[in-house]
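Task: sequence in, structure out. Protein: Guanine deaminase.
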Amino acid sequence: MKIFYGAVINPTSLTSYSSSPYSLIAIDAAGDIDWIVDDVEPHNLQETLAVKGRIDSEVIALKDGEFLIPGFIDTHTHAPQVPNKGTGGQYQLLDWLKYITFPMESRFSDVTFAKKTYELVVRRIIDSGTTTCCYYGTLHLEATKVLADIVHSFGQRAFVGKCNMNRECPSDYIELSSEASMADTHAIISHITSFPPPSIHSRSHELHEPLVQPILTPRFAISCTDDLLSSLGTLAASHPKLRIQTHISENLSEIEFTRKLFPDAPSYAGVYDMFGLLRSNTILAHAVHLGEDEMDLIKTRNAGISHCPTSNFNLHSGVAPIGVYLDKGIKVGLGTDVSGGFHISVLNAIQNASIAAKIRSMQAGNPLTPRPSMSPSFADKPLPIPTLLYLATAGGAEVCGLEKRVGSFAPGKSFDALLVNVRPEAGNIGLWGHTDSPDIHSLEEQKQILDTWLERFLFCGDDRNIQSVYVQGRLVGGRSFHL
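Result:
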């Protein structure tokens, strides 16, 4: 058993998180959290360990200026687009696909190139603090197998999908038919589900879901013919637990083109619904320009939205009304959407989600108060720190259908966590975090200091502050990780 002792911040709802300067978290051999005891001050440490029967157990003590949070969950990114990161910002969506994205993705027909690239991509994403990631691959079966293999070998939790795209794509980057697309889709599902299952059991005696799972990935409605969407819907119906990921209402031109291609559908969301692809484990990226009827449909189907603010700014798509979705009870997580987004870190998505909400608030004429209201209403208001943390962790877990396993710390859940270091030796000169002080602070004062560290990390932190990345209790990345 592994026991951590130190500061812990844990999301509890959209409006709150718990913080404890002195928390004990015990991790069992399966990588699950066995027990948690908060506010164990140093003079009570040995007594608490004795009560738990762990007086002789090794305790990993966090330094002052270090704290644990749940790992970040990226609900939407494109692994083959990482080499394009930081380019193409002069285009809007459809031209960006034509001139920037499709040419790069077509290179992944070369499996050697795919392996070399994906090893760098996955390592960087893990080290940025992403413990769970929803990956889009390309249309290439063999390259997507390589992506899944690398993710599996690196120990990240992930959903990996081969893109379905048999129309409105370049002649050198398009699937030949819906039959060919479906054959490769079945093949990638078989490949990923053939990975050796974990030989561990959860506290409820149910076998853990594999860390790496397949996900159906119709790229977006424009890229799929009716018969391909119909076949994907049939496949989805036969596999209720199979997740689905796609794009929706990112760009006004895209929405108009979708209407022309699917004249019988009531809306963009209605396209996916009429083919059986809108359900509780569907992840819809962007959702910048949804109609009221689409919001109601998404809520009824209990689908989730991946908010990708960096990409929406960068490609001039718009500002999604995330507060409205939260008020309606729609599940929302964050996505980096590289390379529409120019940063692989969920920290960047947090920062831009905050800016996006403030823009909505300014557009609505709402003043920014010194202490944002913690009321249940989010529409056209800035997002408080607890909300931003929740979206990056527990909210993403809900969108991915993993809320029982990850996203927060609780007994029986997997220990997917980040050990954050805001001490000067982390080397991030942009973060004014921990400073040595001889003063003795009360427990409440220390919690206030911890709150400040969290906020500064979310807005000024980067990979240098991510000391360790744990997935299922195993160290898989971060500054302390060595191959």
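The chain is about 35% helix and 20% strand.
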